[in-house]
Amino acid sequence: MELLILSSLTGLMTLIGAVGVLFFGQxxxxxxxxxxxxxxxxxxxxxxxxxxxxxxxxxxxxxxGIGMGLGLMVMMILHQILHGxxxxxxxxxxxxxxxxxxxxxxxxxxxxxxxxxxxxxxxxGYEAHQELGVLVSLSIALHNVPSGIGIAIPFVMANVRKKRxxxxxxxxxxxxxxxxxxxxxxxxxxxxxxxxxxxFAAGAMGYIVWKEIGPTALRHDKLSAQLGMAGSIVILYIxxxxx
Length: 243
Hints:
Blueprint: H1 2-24, H2 29-58, H3 61-87, H4 95-128, H5 130-157, H6 162-173, H7 175-185, H8 191-220, H9 222-242
Helix pairs in contact: 1-5, 1-6, 1-7, 2-5, 2-8, 2-9, 3-4, 3-8, 4-5, 4-6, 4-7, 4-8, 5-6, 5-9, 8-9
């Protein structure tokens, strides 16, 4: 029960980030670029400093390669599917709105995939040592807030209803406790699977930053996007100090 509560609170930080965007309303162009840059920077740093080192430490090189390859392949397929879905929307919807809608969907899917193996890490760490599970949970919770911001902003810009944004983000948040339960009961003894799952998340997150978030942030306002990316370094530095 303690693990379920801990992982649920960690996951709900994603929803809190999204609700903050909904509460303060649609951001301006520079603010949008800043937050997208912040989200992109955090995701890249999490991949490089947390997910990949954890994947390599948990399992063999083969598990990391398979996981990253699957993550990239799945996101490429989803990108094509979502591109087709978006293009089937009414002609009255502007191309810019279509772009933001697709970005929001890709963000939600990428972070959902990201949250499951992170939940597995919480569950496995908690089973190994409760203090380790709490520390892992804290670091994940801190960067879940900007992840929620990254999901909500594109949907707001695509004029998606606030209730729907909250429901989608809640679903993404619940992937963390789902992963924690999987980690507790199934993946503790399988380092190969844990490593592959973490690498899968790394591949998925890397793809969405490369194809969607990074280019869009720079296109809206290059300086603001770069400031957001710089801010992500500060945030992740604080997270690693708190560890």
